[in-house]
Amino acid sequence: VIREAYHQALMKAKLCPRGFQYRQAALKVGGCDFKAFDEILFCNFFYLHRTENIVLKNIYERCQAVLFMQGDKRRWPALLRIANTFGQPVTEGPEVKPTNFNLKIYEAFDGHAQAGMVSSILDGISDYESTVIVVPDGDFLAVLLTAVGHKFESFNISMGYPLKRSALYSLLTHILSLQLKRKGGLYYTKDYLKLLQHPLIKGLDLKTVPGLVRVWTAKVEEVLKGEVLTELSGRIFLDPQDIFKDEKLTNLVVQTMQAMGQTVRFEEIERTAGLIHKIFLHDFEDMKTASRLADALEGFISFMQEQKTMEQYPFNAQIALRLQEVSEELKACAFAYEIFEPVDLFKVLEERLSSEMVAFRGSPLRGLQILGLFETRSLNFKNVIIVDVNEGFLPGLNIYEPLIPREVMIKLNLDRLELEEEIQRYWFMRLISAAQNVHLLYQQNNDRTRSRFLEELIWEKEERQGNIGVVDITRAGFEVSVEKPLRVIPKTPEMIRFLKGFRFSASSINTYLQNPYAFYCRYVLGLQLTEDLLEDPESKHIGVFVHALLQETFGVFIGKKPVLDEGFRKYFFKIYESRFAQSFGLAGRRDTFLMETVIRARLEHFFDKEAKRCERDVGQILYIERRFEETLHLAGQQVSISYRMDRVDEMLDGSILLLDYKTGGHEGLSRTIDSLNPSKFSREYIRDHVKSFQMPLYVNYLSQQFPGRSVNGALYHLRTINIERFMKEGKAQDIHEILGVYWNALEFIMAEIYNPEIPFIEDLMEIK
Fold first, then answer.
1. C-alpha torsion sign, points 662, 665, 667, 668
2. pLDDT tens, position by position, 73-112
3. What DSSP element (H or E) covers 292?
4. Which of 334, 356, 354 is nearest to 289 (CA)?
5. What is the pTM of this model?
6. Cβ–Cβ < 8 Å for 105, 471
């Protein structure tokens, strides 16, 4: 009933899809007149589906058809079915002929190793005209050509280049990904940056001031990543309209263009950004129909065809043409105006494009042949090289049917999976059986295993020789040296002069302690890793935010006893909300909701605990985020050192407590050390025992500022609201003795820093 209704609908709409064509051919072949032909020759076929069986048998029974095929029905079920259909034997002779060729098998660990092995195989072949490389997977083609393309003056590639490997396709996938992750009018910032970083975007020719597009995309990237701080910095989701409102970003573009000798107006920047947003963002928004998607795709293609960057890649014109044909298909399809979810429309488009190929120009009559498996049908080669002889590629089977479940197909006596495997196995065996030398390569790794076709060949050879493991397999191997040379930087007189005038900090001394080479890069050369606010906003940037919040709010208590009552709580969280909006965007927005919720919950926990501690133990707050400087006599030198202390409290018992806020989860405090053996002193020894000079330096400085007082330091872990003290109970009275132990170690480290004979050497332990 369903089929008949479907056929009626097709005829009414004057549509003739492939399945309907087959049915009509089977029904009408009996009424066709073939008298114009004395004979009709059907050559080199293997599997016949039902329509082909009906058509060929009808013509055969009229004595007008001669059928040619290769193979034996005793070996191939498909040929047995043909023999039964036509009532004729399909045999090669009295017995099935065994295969007879020189087989070599190669195992590679990845595609590049496989391509390298193909290159080595070709070095041993002189007759390229009689050689074929069979590539079941088009994605491997680029890797193969990179490895072997330089070896030949001429070669023919019949299978084409996958459209999905092109720059134009990757740009389109960025556009679709942006839309799928869009939240209302907000775009995921990382995907927005991927779009702007695409080479085809950076190279756009918008008939504007030369270099403007590149400068604009670069400055947007700097702002969003936080390399230049504006209101947009660090946002996880972005409203594209905010790009136009950021005056600091616009001024940055103008200044950079001026430095390049170009004058640009704000209107020109806005026009450039607006055009990019229109073509690559807004035209693809709110997709509901295939027709609407086709219009957006057509506009995108037409725009890109006008760009000079498209000319730099030879396949771009053909790829754009194929995309244009697909957009026309979408417009003409029966469901062009049906309503769909955007994700379904994009899946249809991606599925349609995923198998598209762009044809190479070549001659099948000369040179090395690079073909797909089915392009080798009826062809014989002396040397056959087949790559990717892996499950999933040979045979390459589509296990999942997109529309009709496989169980239903089997019930209808349509087991395409089994038939497809038999077809591919036949053409594989036919090709290698006609060759003299066969080279089969496969990849063996976590994702791939060798093909059942290859297992069959190995088993046949083992069975003939009566022994397992007799088949030699050549495995890829490359010499790799993993030893990393130690980087050593000798100290020059200029470096020594620089170090003697350098103002150290606890952080810089600790850097040298852990890795002298890192100290050299960071403090001598002034190099620093570029920070990216988008990569990990929950770590360092949250720490900066919390430190600034505590400085502003608790700063009102300097010289006073901190009273954390209800009034101060309201003031504290009012400042928190204002600073959070400035640093991370508006609280309650979807991109910052989770982070804002977690930070607020921890700060409320901190506030409750701190209110009790201040009431019970704290007399007054002495310093908040205060910088101090002093000069120490170390290693025979006057060493200038600066300190930045988060907070210093005077306790009710008259003691002084330094608090160092920690927002991370892994920062710890090394225990106080009663003694170190000076005879064992080396940087490595001190690194392993002291670990950090921060607390000893801070406590020593405060001890001088508050003589006769008990001074201690502590890490204030804001995640756990735990205070970890430098000197434990009972150790406070031994402060000078304890600091003396650290001072001896510090003297040794500073002497090493100033010693011109000791280079800045890389510490591999710190790297590990």
1. positive
2. 998 888 999 999 999 999 988 888 777 889 999 999 999 9
3. helix 290-305
4. 334
5. 0.65
6. yes
